[in-house]
Amino acid sequence: MRRYLRVLFVCTLLVFCSLLYIFNQLVSSLERADHRERAPRTRAVDTGLSGRAQDDRCGSDSVTHWEPYWRISRDVCPNHCVTDSAPRSAPQDPVQLAVVACGSRLEETLVMLKSAVLFSHRHLCFHIFSEDHLHAGFRQELESWPQRFRSTFSYSVYPIVFPSENAREWKRLFKPCASQRLFLPLLLKQVDSVLYVDTDVLFLRPLEDVWSFLSRFNSSQVAAMSPEHEEPRIGWYNRFARHPYYGQTGVNSGVMLMNMTRIRHTLFKNDLAAVDLKWADLLMPLLHKYKLNITWGDQDLLNIIFHYNPESLLLMECLWNYRPDHCIYGSNCISAEHSGVYILHGNRGVYHDDKQPAFRAVYDAIKQ
């Protein structure tokens, strides 16, 4: 009983410290905004276009006749999150953030984007992939944010796009549309690097902190993720997986930093062919071979890829992807105990029920 009380105390202390940091950063952001000149309104994806014109340019009809993804020679639609969209005074390129939202994830995604804006000091560029019926909701909400925050980011909204063959299978793999992240290097061809996050992620530090991991990549690394588990005794992959996985306990893809230029040009080792394959040639054969053996969809496919290419992955500490798994069975994220939580990942739906009150408290604080 005493052990459980100690674990509960540690978790409560971590969340309390994180909440203090959130409110401190929020106050600082508001104070900086009051002294900032009102920047010109940043152009969004539909600037200067009527709703119908936007649908004509980026709607799903424009992609239904695409050839298979390995033959695609252009983006889903012109990319507006490029360097020259940032304010002229910005000393650095924007931080590129990508998210995929389907079904009922509109509100959750907006809270995630709000956390990114609240804490970051650099200009941000959001790449939002969502079902067509959610596009208007994203534009309406983002455009309604106060100008002092609206001027700190630009955004593009894209349709959900999968290879014409097996499109239904890709879309239904694990959660709705989640496997879209696998195709980001093939769709955002003008973007060099991007930070992909799930909709249930909250930033408790500036995005540029995790973005800085790009400078730590060696010549062979193309992506960075955190382990799925810190404690092998409760690990899922090492106990139940029926496919290859990265390292001892696998990796979690809810926070994934990608150098997409490298991903597009790297030849990956695999168990599918006698030769190394490019990313575009790897995904479909992987799905065909392992679709009956994978449980977590696209995350499992990423684990398979980096199992055969461990030199291509940089491993981040668990405080960059802190989940209920790190405290539900005892506190097992040592880096978070020492430094606090940097990125909170509320999987298992804990933002919307009472199973993890601390996670929900952080979500509600940022939402409000």
From TrEMBL:
GO cellular component: membrane
GO molecular function, one term: UDP-D-xylose:beta-D-glucoside alpha-1,3-D-xylosyltransferase activity
GO biological process: protein O-linked glycosylation via N-acetyl-galactosamine
The keyword Transmembrane helix appears for this protein: yes
Class in the EC hierarchy, top level: transferase
Protein topology in the membrane: Single-pass type II membrane protein
Entry EC no(s): 2.4.2.42
Reactions catalysed: 3-O-(beta-D-glucosyl)-L-seryl-[EGF-like domain protein] + UDP-alpha-D-xylose = 3-O-[alpha-D-xylosyl-(1->3)-beta-D-glucosyl]-L-seryl-[EGF-like domain protein] + UDP + H(+)
Coiled coil: none
UniProt-listed InterPro entries: Glyco_trans_8 (IPR002495), Glycosyltransferase_8 (IPR051993), Nucleotide-diphossugar_trans (IPR029044)
Function: Glycosyltransferase which elongates the O-linked glucose attached to EGF-like repeats in the extracellular domain of Notch proteins by catalyzing the addition of xylose.
Family membership: Belongs to the glycosyltransferase 8 family.
Identification of the protein by name: Glucoside xylosyltransferase 1
Taxonomic source organism: Carassius auratus
